[in-house]
Write a structure and sequence with these properties.
Layout lengths: L1 E4 L2 E4 L2 E8 L2 E6 L5 E6 L2 E2 L17 E2 L5 E3 L2 E4 L2 E4 L9 E3 L9 E5 L3 E8 L9 E10 L2 E10 L5 E3 L2 E2 L2 E2 L10 E3 L2 E4 L14 E2 L11 E2 L6 E7 L7 E6 L5 E6 L5 E7 L13 E7 L5 H4 L4 E3 L4 E10 L1
Antiparallel strand pairs: 1-2, 2-3, 3-4, 4-5, 5-6, 7-17, 8-11, 9-10, 12-13, 13-14, 14-15, 15-29, 16-28, 18-27, 19-22, 19-24, 20-21, 20-23, 23-26, 24-25, 25-29, 26-27
């Protein structure tokens, strides 16, 4: 059942906010501050799912205060041991933070912009109160997403963020598309637990080299990439293109030094409903298990605010 309340559409308890600019149209939901869809002139630039339903494979959701996995849900910060709830029991990990299943509060909704916030309070193994905001805004070049995280507690807090963004080149099947990544290294993962299994390695000349456009025919990835090289404007760009050259470009600012590239694939029992094979390019501030490795872990002092920006547009 759906109803419209103050410009927002509510379905199964989840609010949905529509924004438009020129030929661009987007829809953002309150659950996990998720991006439900982005399109231009009716051509999809993201995968989508029915309004009010749980997005498959965490599509579009904000992942904070850490992205990806923490080994055994355990970490030490500032000399204090923490045991988080295990949210990926099959691999005994804590996965994708604490806010992707919660409803965020609407702060602003205009024809082109939606800003939502959530106060992250105390959880098992997490004694650090944070105030998070996510703003989705459409402009001539597409979607810009701005995240902030403010430490509203009395202690320094560890922090990381990611977004589980599925990109799409219109209706072209993934196996007919090409992918280009502005990334020079990849972090090997243990295939059983999907946790780091060594130091970052160069991608050049390997099966993980997408620095030039490569076909995705039969390719499967669930891989953290780094050594991301920005363009002169400070943005790093990653491109998914259909055979006719159209497609989607996902860009990140310097705060997002990592991307996780994931292929949904029915052959691995993780197909995207209605699409089969699909591709996520996930902006991340840090790699998996960063609270244990310390790699690119952000530390927020009391009263300090972090800001990061990424976006998605048409090619």
């Amino acid at each position: 059942m759906s109803e419209s309340v103050n410009g927002a559409v509510r379905s199964s308890g989840v609010r949905s906010f529509k924004i438009e600019h020129g030929d661009y149209r987007a829809e953002v939901v309150s659950r996990g501050a998720g991006l439900r869809l982005l399109e231009i002139g009716g051509r999809p630039l993201t995968e989508t799912s029915p309004a009010g339903e749980k997005p498959p494979l965490s599509a579009g959701l904000v992942l904070a205060p850490w992205p990806n996995r923490i080994r055994d849900g355990y970490f030490i910060f500032d000399g204090v041991e923490h045991q988080l709830a295990i949210t990926e029991p099959a691999r005994n990990n804590a996965i994708h933070g604490l806010v992707r299943r919660d409803d965020w509060e609407l702060e602003e909704h205009t024809p082109v912009r939606v800003r939502q916030s959530i106060r992250l309070g105390l959880h098992k193994g997490w004694p650090y109160p944070l105030q998070l905001t996510t703003t989705h805004e459409l402009g001539p070049a597409g979607l810009t997403v701005t995240h902030t995280a403010a430490n509203i507690g009395a202690m320094p807090a560890p922090f990381g963020m990611g977004v589980h963004t599925f990109v799409r080149a219109g209706d072209a099947p993934l196996d007919e598309c090409t992918l280009r990544l502005t990334a020079g290294t990849r972090l090997p993962l243990d295939p059983e637990r999907m946790l780091p299994a060594g130091n970052s390695e160069s991608v050049y000349g390997t099966d993980f080299d997408f620095t030039a456009p490569r076909s995705l025919d039969g390719v499967w990835l669930d891989t953290p990439f780094s050594s991301i090289v920005p363009d002169p404007d400070g943005r790093a760009r990653h491109e998914l293109r259909a055979p006719d050259g159209s497609g989607a470009v996902l860009w990140t600012d310097r705060q997002f030094g990592w991307i996780q590239v994931f292929t949904a694939d029915p052959k691995r029992d993780q197909g995207y409903p209605g699409r089969g094979r699909a591709l996520a390019i996930e902006p991340m501030t840090c790699p998996p298990d960063a609270f244990n490795s310390g790699i690119d872990q952000v530390v927020l002092r009391p009263g300090e605010t972090w800001t990061g920006t990424w976006g998605l547009g048409a090619l």
